[in-house]
């Protein structure tokens, strides 16, 4: 494993749906952009379908109404962003975009066209038919994005006051599962970079299946070698190796350490070469009580 460069996003894209979860996501995105010296793009996407039975004149009238509504929506987006970020928004190079498009397509296309290298989303974290961003948008973005995706939910033990735009962002503990795959290189590098920025502790964790417990010592040695190659000496590191079901052990460790963030890897699809969420990443993404950063291979 060669020496890796630090992760320094230059353009942060935050997609919002005007919910409290989006407000929290925007808080993360704004402070993250400030700390990294990055540009911030705030995006709202909503698809407006014109009824097929409208006459041409009715369609033209409706188009004008929609154009006016979009202009009003951009003004509201600016106001919403200011209410979430306060004076911080004045110190950031910020672009506001309101698009008539399905949110998944809009986020992926804007990420590509604007050269964003970090996407931030809020999730309601609901289950079943009422699960909104996580089921219909956030998980799709995390699955298909070619840049890291930061999925935000309000933590069980809150460390951000979303009602106070001046409240500081304090990340103390980052969980970084590794399985020594190609994606794990990116997971470890990104985790260490974030830990350095926020003066946090990073906890790399390797989970070995019960039927492969004899490999535990070898995993510990490889993990130690990898940490040295990403300059992990510049932040606090407490590596952990465990035996059992990967997702269960990761979720258990998040709770035990009162972690603030979990960094997980996406995998390349063998057929398309594009990012694909594995079973462990999906389970942790859906069940973790903390924000999750999903890192694609090569990020």
Describe the structure using short key phrases.
single chain; 299 residues; alpha/beta; Rossmann fold; 8 helices; 41% helix; elongated
Can you give a write-up of this model?
It contains 8 helices and 13 strands. By secondary structure, the protein is of the alpha/beta class. The chain folds into 2 domains: 11-152, Rossmann fold (3-Layer(aba) Sandwich), CATH 3.40.50.620; 173-295, 3-Layer(aba) Sandwich (Rossmann fold), CATH 3.40.50. Strands 1, 2, 3, 4, 5, 6, 7, 8, 9, 10 and 13 form an 11-stranded mixed β-sheet that branches. The protein is elongated and about 75 Å long. 41% of the residues are buried.
- Provide the low-confidence segments as ranges: 126-134
Count of DSSP strands:
13
User: What are the secondary-structure elements, in order, as H or E?
Assistant: EHEHEHEHEEHEHEEHEEEHE
Give the overall silhouette.
elongated
Radius of gyration, Cα only, in angstroms?
20 Å
CATH structural architecture of the largest domain: 3-Layer(aba) Sandwich
CATH superfamily of the largest domain: HUPs
Rounded mean pLDDT score: 81
